[in-house]
């Protein structure tokens, strides 16, 4: 009897400890709900107001063409966010396997096509390139066709098909990382995005430093400096929104097999939600940070 009492007491203490420790998964899920709610509210407001402003301006410049396409791209993302919020709030996916893959594809297509448009804006402003509306429309259309007619069908046809996943779960395709082609594709995407981000950031910073030295102390009164400052805004968005996800992606690929409690998966989803924060860029357009 004396030998049993310590064990019983220890068991009670363990149960008490378990009850007092917060559920980490619930905490991380709450962060996802907050991030996507901010994306949905801020992104919707930005798209609506910016659309109204563009309709009033009716400009036909190359930059406006790119901004209009960013609006359309953000709209597709915003339409997919309620599905994600429903899943994180209800803890159950109710929309079928195809819709799950479609929503998953949407956020990745949004991220990489938005990144392409950002790079185009940065390069145009950085090197003062001039493109007419026709030329800009052609290459923008080519980007859309590559995403919609090539990348999206391949993603929907093959991603999430090498394993059988419960219909009540979604965004949990981590076992796909056991496939070598998927690992190679992910590493290539990470390498390209980080290299482009790093190169453009270095060039942009060097230009900003040169203009600061040249025009100091009245830097804000010079059109050239203000133009590069607006370009630097997009560089910051790519660094803040896109780079963390891709840096973590490398760690995730190397350690996902150790993720027994799916915490790494949830952290990956949080970094993915951060990429969707770029849809708030339209609020910066409206505020006059970029135009």
Automatic annotation (TrEMBL):
Q: Does the keyword Transmembrane helix apply?
A: yes
Q: Where in the cell is it found?
A: Membrane
GO CC aspect terms: membrane
Q: Which InterPro entries match?
A: GP183-like, GPCR_Rhodpsn_7TM
Has keyword NAD? no
Q: Report the PROSITE patterns cross-referenced here.
A: G_PROTEIN_RECEP_F1_2
* GO molecular function (one): G protein-coupled receptor activity
Q: Which domain of life is it from?
A: Eukaryota
Q: Chief subcellular site? A: membrane
Q: Which residues form a coiled coil?
A: none
Ranges for the G-protein coupled receptors family 1 profile domain? 42-251
Q: Which keywords appear in this protein's UniProt record, sorted alphabetically?
A: G-protein coupled receptor, Membrane, Receptor, Transducer, Transmembrane, Transmembrane helix
What is this entry's stated membrane topology?
A: Multi-pass membrane protein
User: Where is the chain membrane-spanning?
Assistant: 31-50, 62-87, 107-127, 139-159, 184-211, 232-251, 271-290
PANTHER family membership:
G PROTEIN-COUPLED RECEPTOR 141B, G-PROTEIN COUPLED RECEPTOR
- What is the protein's given name? G-protein coupled receptors family 1 profile domain-containing protein
Q: Which organism is it from?
A: Gallus gallus (Chicken)
- Encoding gene (name): LOC101748775
């Amino acid at each position: 009897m004396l030998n049993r009492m310590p064990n019983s007491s220890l068991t009670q203490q363990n149960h008490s400890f378990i009850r007092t420790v917060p559920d980490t998964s619930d905490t991380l899920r709450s962060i996802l709900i907050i991030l996507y709610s901010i994306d949905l509210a801020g992104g919707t407001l930005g798209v609506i107001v910016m659309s109204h402003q563009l309709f009033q301006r009716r400009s036909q410049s190359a930059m406006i063409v790119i901004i209009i396409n960013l609006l359309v791209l953000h709209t597709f993302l915003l339409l997919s966010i309620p599905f994600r919020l429903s899943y994180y709030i209800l803890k159950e996916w109710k929309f079928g396997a195809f819709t799950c893959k479609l929503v998953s594809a949407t956020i990745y297509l949004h991220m990489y096509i938005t990144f392409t448009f950002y790079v185009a804006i940065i390069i145009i402003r950085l090197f003062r390139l001039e493109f007419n509306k026709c030329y800009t429309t052609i290459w923008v259309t080519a980007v859309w066709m590559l995403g919609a007619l090539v990348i999206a069908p391949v993603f929907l046809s093959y991603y999430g098909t090498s394993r059988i996943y419960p219909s009540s779960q979604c965004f949990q395709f981590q076992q796909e990382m056991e496939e070598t082609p998927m690992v190679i594709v992910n590493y290539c995407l990470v390498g390209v995005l980080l290299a482009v981000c790093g190169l453009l950031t270095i060039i942009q910073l060097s230009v900003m430093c040169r203009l600061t030295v040249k025009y100091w102390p009245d830097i804000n009164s010079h059109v050239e400096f203000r133009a590069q400052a607006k370009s630097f805004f997009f560089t910051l968005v790519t660094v803040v929104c896109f780079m963390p996800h891709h840096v973590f992606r490398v760690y995730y690929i190397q350690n996902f097999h150790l993720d027994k409690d799916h915490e790494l998966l949830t952290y990956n989803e949080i970094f993915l939600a951060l990429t969707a924060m770029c849809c708030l860029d339209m609020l910066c357009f409206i505020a006059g940070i970029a135009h």
